[in-house]
Amino acid sequence: MNTSSKLLVGLLFISSFSFGQNLSKRIDSIVNDNYKKNPEIGISVGFINNNEEYYTAYGKLNAESQTKINKNSIFEIASITKILTSNLIAQAVMDHKIKLDDYIDGFLPNGYILQPNLQNKIKISDLASHQSGLPDLDFPKLMELNPQQPVSSVTAETLAGIINNCNELKDYGKYRYSTIGYTLMGQILEKVYGKSYDEIISANLIKPLHMTNTLTKDFDVENRTTAHNPNGGIQEFFKWNITAPAGLIKSDASDMVAYLKAVLNNETTVGKAAIITEKVVYKDEKREMGLGLNIVSDDKNTIYMKSGDSMGQSSIICYNRNKKWGIIILLDQRNSKMRQDLLNTIYDTVLK
């Protein structure tokens, strides 16, 4: 490489780095302004732009702690777990274990029996895009029974009863958000790999990406944030048990940026699987869905995103493959409006 070429590469690097720094400062300003208006809600944000990482965070781990929230503070990512599960499903497709248009019948655990009129109808892609038509868990009832741990009472027998007693797919082919669908996807993974969901996600995502603060159990760690319900009361982190593939994961901004970095790299296994999940498999007048991903497009951008809300925390992940940026927003209170407004402001004023 001659001197002029080296100079050009150097100038391009400096320009790109400066652009990234400018974006991060503007994002930090928006997050800081949001925190000043809502000082009782802790925030952690991770941002990646052309493989460069940036972080900002505000608030304390809990009311009694002087420890500030940072990029390594643990939050519930809740239903963002679903895009990790769908990435594992796409990896299973790449491993020739399944096909997305396979019917689920032959992959169901022992004890699950589909009624005759439901057989050879529901595809794996239907589960992943929330259009299977299967009945779901009654969360309001579960919350009434146990407000701190509503899914703790859900067992394999509970799920088998729901599936086996279903004789009609009322909204088959229509979007209806489903916890059971993603629970079944986790069980399909367990069947084709002969391992537990915990072992599969650890081997295929957590360990390869060095996500050292991404937890599937043992959540009582020092860097864990405190969860708060919409009224500010303390809420326990959920123990998802058998429904784990739908919402179990606890993680931090740093690890979720590591995941985004792998997703945006077309050469990684995770990145190749993510491209499979980005294919539109459901569309109506309100939304486009990939495998677990909401897809929003205009004439210049295609955005992939997924939100997560436990009873005590809210989060959202979003990325643009073509422009090579991604963002994760984590709040220590359940406040879906705040996390959506925060993302919208950042996107409209910085990323768009």
Give me the count of strands: 12
> Would you state the CATH class of one domain?
Alpha Beta
What's the average pLDDT?
Answer: 93
CATH architecture of one domain: 3-Layer(aba) Sandwich
Q: Shape from CA axes?
A: globular
Report, as a whole number of angstroms, the end-to-end distance. 35 Å
Helices and strands, in N-to-C order? Answer: HEEEHHHHHHEEEHHEEEEEEH
- Within the CATH hierarchy, at the fold level, what is the topology of one domain? Beta-lactamase
- The share of residues in helices is 25-40%
**What gyration radius follows from the Cα positions, in whole Å?**
21 Å
CATH H-level superfamily of one domain: DD-peptidase/beta-lactamase superfamily
Structural class: alpha+beta
DSSP helix count? 10
The major sheet is characterized as: 8 strands, antiparallel
Q: Which regions contain 5 or more consecutive residues with pLDDT less than 50?
A: 9-17
Strand order of the largest sheet: 2-1-12-11-10-9-8-7
Sheet-strand content, in percent, reads 5-15%
Structure, briefly:
The chain is of the alpha+beta class. It has ten helices and twelve strands.
